[in-house]
Design goal:
binds uridine-diphosphate-2(N-acetylglucosaminyl) butyric acid, cytoplasm, RNA3'P_cycl/enolpyr_Trfase_a/b, EC 2.5.1.7, cell division, alpha/beta, UDP-n-acetylglucosamine1-carboxyvinyl-transferase, Chain, 30% helix, 24 strands
């Protein structure tokens, strides 16, 4: 199994190109099931999760072609996928595939909307929490689907097709909103989603669905209205830049010091995180090409942060902020409100010497002057990258094990960081 070796202490200086967003690319690929025409997606990141979803969609009978580079494309430009769901040969998503990536459960929505039937394995829990799908099931039932659970599978039917309805989510859910949105595009009549997630990835998917002929308004607000249409058609869409990748590298620069341009990053997608970084002592300058992050001289100031749905501070940057605060001049508080068990990185950060204690859903971090490198590993994607951030600033050598978590969500991580002066390499085997 691959490992990453990092020798800490170097400042980061240079340009880091930001890839397409994983959490937009995945639902966009799934949306291709809604039409028998070709959906072309540009700037799809080359990630293990994308490859896994390609296998899952392939199992349903989709043809997926990845185009090479065109003249003038940047070396980090994501891939272009041509996805054709002209023939859906199988409406079952088996346990062996869904259990490897939770988001693949979302295929239930387009399969039900277009084929009126779907059999999809329940995804099960994961390292960051139990992550139930009750709200997704509730939304599909509201749209008229009959669902039953049998042998670990959700068996869904809508013999006459789905029908528009009012869906009130009792809590904000990204997965629930994606599923309701996709299902409602082909339902008869109007659907209203109340308390919808406002995440930029929802807006990106709604934009793409509208290009495919859907009639969606209000995406990006808590009330989304969808007028169902009979058929969707092919379209071409560019995946928006990854705000979590941008925020992660911004935290890394705040941690090591230096001066980095996050090329292609869009500040409005991560304003809450940029505000926290400014409070912590980094200088953030949005410009035409992205976001410039610098920290020179001054130390890191402690912060008090609570994760929240967009536009609040994202749970997907919580672990990275904790790594940064491990070296702050004072005591920080980070409260996690989205996932009940997203503190798996605390024990691993402690291996660097970080002083972190937990009080329910709040972590109290007492900053120390210097972390020290150590062998570490993590059980989820964002926790893994928090260890990379800690390692970049730590004295001495760190080995991050279980690198496959990083490969799920960070494209060419070690290349991007070493181009900015980090001592980082992948050790195969
Ligand atoms: N929830 C329920 N019932 C449901 C659905 C969700 O109780 O039916 C709960 C969850 O257990 C959680 C909360 O609601 O406590 C929010 O879950 P949400 O549905 O919003 O999250 P998700 O769609 O499963 C996506 C991202 C996550 C990101 C969260 C929150 C993708 C593929 N995943 O998950 O990303 O943390 O939204 O923003 O878009 C990651 O990229 O590392 C990652 C975990």
């Amino acid at each position: 199994m691959d490992r990453i070796r990092i020798v800490g202490g170097n400042k980061l200086n240079g340009i880091i190109p930001i890839s397409g967003a994983k959490n937009a690319a995945l639902p966009l690929m799934i949306a291709s099931l809604l039409t028998d025409e070709t959906l072309i997606l540009d700037n799809v990141p080359r990630l293990a999760d994308v490859a896994q979803l390609q296998r899952i969609l392939g199992n349903h009978g989709l043809d997926i072609m990845s185009k090479g580079k065109r003249p003038g494309d940047h070396e980090y430009q994501g891939q272009t996928l041509h996805i054709s769901a002209a023939n859906i040969i199988d409406t079952t998503a088996p346990y062996e595939l869904v259990s490897k990536m939770r988001a693949s459960f979302w295929v239930i929505a387009p399969l039900l909307a277009r084929m009126h039937v779907a059999k999809v394995s329940l995804p099960g829990g994961c390292a960051i929490g139990t992550r139930p799908v009750d709200l997704l099931i509730m939304a599909l039932e509201k749209l008229g689907a009959e669902l039953q659970i049998d042998g670990g599978y959700v068996i869904a039917r809508a013999p006459g097709g789905l029908t528009g309805a009012e869906i009130d989510f009792p809590k904000v859910t990204v997965s629930g909103t994606h599923v309701a949105l996709m299902a409602a595009t082909l339902a008869k009549g109007t659907t209203v989603i109340n308390n919808a997630a406002c995440e930029p990835e929802i807006v990106d998917v709604a934009d793409c669905l509208n290009k495919m002929g859907a009639k969606i308004s209000g995406a990006g607000t808590p009330r989304i209205v969808i007028e169902g249409v009979k058929k969707l058609h092919g379209a071409r869409h560019t995946v928006l830049p990854d705000r979590i990748e941008a925020g992660t590298y911004a935290m890394a620069v705040a941690m090591t010091g230096g001066d980095v341009q996050l090329a292609g990053a869009r500040p409005e997608l991560l304003q809450s995180a940029l505000d926290v970084l400014t409070e912590a002592g980094a200088t953030i300058t949005p410009n035409n090409e992205g976001i410039r992050v610098t920290r020179n001289g001054a130390g890191i100031s402690p912060v008090k942060v609570t994760t929240a749905p967009f536009p609040g501070f994202p749970t997907d940057l919580q672990a990275q902020l904790m790594a940064l605060m491990a070296c702050a001049k004072g005591s920080s508080h980070i409260t996690e409100t989205i996932f009940e068990n997203r503190f798996m990185h605390v024990q691993e950060l402690a291996r660097f010497g970080a002083r972190i204690s937990l009080d329910g859903e709040t972590a109290i971090i007492d900053g120390i002057a210097k972390l020290r490198g150590a062998p570490v590993m993590a059980t989820d994607l964002r926790a893994s990258v928090s260890l990379v951030i800690a390692a970049l600033a730590a004295e001495g050598e760190t080995t991050v094990n279980r690198v496959y978590h990083l490969d799920r969500g960070f494209e060419r991580l070690e290349e991007k960081l070493s181009a900015c002066g980090a001592t980082i390499e992948r050790i195969s085997g």
